[in-house]
Amino acid sequence: xxxxxxxxxxxxxxxxxxxxxxxxxxxxxxxxxxxxxxxxxxxxxxxxxxxxxxxxxxxxxxxxxxxxxxxxxxxxxxxxxxxxxxxxxxxxxxxxxxxxxxxxxxxxxxxxxxxxxxxxxxxxxxxxxxxxxxxxxxxxxxxxxxxxxxxxxxxxxxxxxxxxxxxxxxxxxxxxxxxxxxxxxxxxxxxxxxxxxxxxxxxxxxxxxxxxxxxxxxxxxxxxxxxxxxxxxxxxxxxxxxxxxxxxxxxxxxxxxxxxxxxxxxxxxxxxxxxxxxxxxxxxxxxxxxxxxxxxxxxxxxxxxxxxxxxxxxxxxxxxxxxxxxxxxxxxxxxxxx
Length: 338
What we know:
alpha/beta, nine-stranded mixed β-sheet, four-stranded mixed β-sheet, 10 helices, 13 strands
């Protein structure tokens, strides 16, 4: 990754507008059904909900694309969806968000993931998941991989983000060939991992597990959020064995820790009135991807990402980062880009 020197943060944030980011991963529809409960069913001891409102939103990797767009960059979302009715809803939502459909691959052997949450009086009563979580079958994997490599060749991307939700879109073969192509093109690759592929991500630029994913991925249970030296010792093994340049671990209320194979830096979280932590991880990987594509130092990237992740936790629901607000707070807390 080639670092770029900017006069100040505003110039760096302005540079976001010239970037293209490929987001590869598991996309889904988050559906919400709100209603009132005022009786128990005579058929079984379960509440009866009277529907008052239904809403569908983009989720998973699509939420990362929304955050990238909010930062001013141009995302291309690359996901496998089904050839079904929910796919039509998904594409309509892409249009509403003004996101490109060029990276979307429809498969007759998959279904479009939809998660339906039934909510009454601000309490979630039930969630219904309709999904395939198996890895792509070989013909679909091969076709989707060719689709990805074509986009990388033709669209001149500035970074690649793997947004992995363990739903099967990202496979070891896709990881290997896409990271290889990214190295050939000289662009950074970033990973928001889950357990299935945790050890398959090799030769990537930045790897961003949360603390729980770190412990599960490495099968260690003796760490705490404040054991920074011990966390770094575990990360050094990953740096060596998986040839990962940078690892950014999110530590909830303890902030973030970023490391290379020699050093680490812990950045505490700012004191905030936390409303909802949903989507904070998506925001952090989005900011990191755009900032690294812009050529900012990874040490600075971790500070900006930490601030952005905290900001979205102050708002209810899954909401994208506010670029203007992010810049203003970064200018207060990051005095220099050195």
